[in-house]
Amino acid sequence: MYLKTLTIFAWLGLSYVGLVFFAHSWYVALPLAISLGLAMAGVGFSIQHDGGHNAYSERRLVNRASSWALDMLGGSSYFWHYKHNIAHHTYPNISGADDDLVVGWIGRLSPHDRSHGFHRFQQFYLWFLYSLLPIRWALIDDFHSMIDPGIGQTKVPRPRGWDQVRFWAGKAFFIGGAFVLPLLFHKVGEVALWYLVTMMVLGVVLATVFQLAHCVEEATFPLPNEAGKMDHDWATHQVLTTVDFSRGNGLVTWYVGGLNYQIEHHLFPHICHVHYPKIAEIVEAAARKHGIPYHCNSTWGALRSHYRWLRRMGRPATAATQPATA
Ligand SMILES: [Zn+2]
Fold it and tell me: Could you point out which of 17, 149, 229, 260 has its C-alpha 20 to 30 Å from the C-alpha of 284?
């Protein structure tokens, strides 16, 4: 993990330095901006995500420091903790509770969400929305959360003390790195363009990797029963609502920080992602033994399945056809 962390930060640093100090033409800037976006996503997948789950290390400070990488890259680690660790990990694919299903009126990811006529085109345009997510997250959503904390049905206390300091220090660091420093060497239009390209690459890659695990045809979207309880126990729910992809592909596993083993991640979020390939064999055997559907796609198969799921959710007639279990 230490070597991996060093490699990814070196990738990030070289891409940034190259883009800000050495890119004087678009054909040099474009690959560097793409590389920077991919490296930022890599930090999120492999370093910050593990740290945020206390899974990076047995040392608390190492976990906390790696989770702060998010603050440096523009997003608040404080609000992410409530959005991801609590709202998403406790209630995956439960409409109204899992904030990852909320994309606003513009898209429909769950069969229990309201449908609009224009959703029939969402399998084409939602990718563009994914690309804008980090910009909205860093420059709008976090500030909105600061004014009005609360994510779906999850209560969020307003940050205090060091959490406040880290929030504002992170925003200042990010704005300094993304805008102030580049503006000393480049025109406003150039800085805006390469900021946009970098963030869009980051957004598409981040959102897609998470969507391939939950918003696909093989996953279910159960709701609580009349008593307000789920029909399945917690662990079964995690397996039913989550799908692995590209298991056994070392390069994918390395880059997405084990998020292609998302079933294992949801069952054991406190275990470092480097162990997921071994754990997966045990989890799959246990799921089969107990008759719980366990799904794994190829990367291409997962992308197609996400596309088909978006297309299906864009058609109102299919609203109630998703079974509670599949
Ligand atoms: Zn997670």
Answer: 229
Confidence of residue 268 (pLDDT cuts 50, 70, 90): very high
Q: What's the 310 CA to ligand 1 centre distance in angstroms?
A: 22
Compute the distance between CA of residue 38 and CA of residue 44 in angstroms, rounded to an integer: 10
Return all residues near 162 (Cβ < 8 A) that are at least 6 apart.
Answer: none
Q: How many Å apart are CA 267 and CA 292, to the nearest integer? A: 14
CA of 210 to the centre of ligand 1 (A): 9
User: Strand locations in 209-323, DSSP E?
Assistant: 244-245, 296-297
Query: pLDDT tens for residues 190-205?
Result: 999 999 999 999 999 9
| Ligand 1 centroid, distance to 165 Cα (angstroms) | 25
The model's pTM: 0.90
Q: How many C-beta neighbours within 10 Å does residue 33 have?
A: 25
Instruction: Return the pLDDT at 324.
Output: 42
pLDDT tens digits, one per residue of 207-250: 999 999 999 999 999 998 888 888 889 999 999 999 999 998 99
What's the gap in Å between 267 CA and the centre of ligand 1? 10
Question: How far, in Å, is the centroid of ligand 1 from the Cα of 224?
Answer: 22
Nearest to 110 by CA among 233, 219, 204: 219
Interval between CA 158 and ligand 1 midpoint (Å)? 22
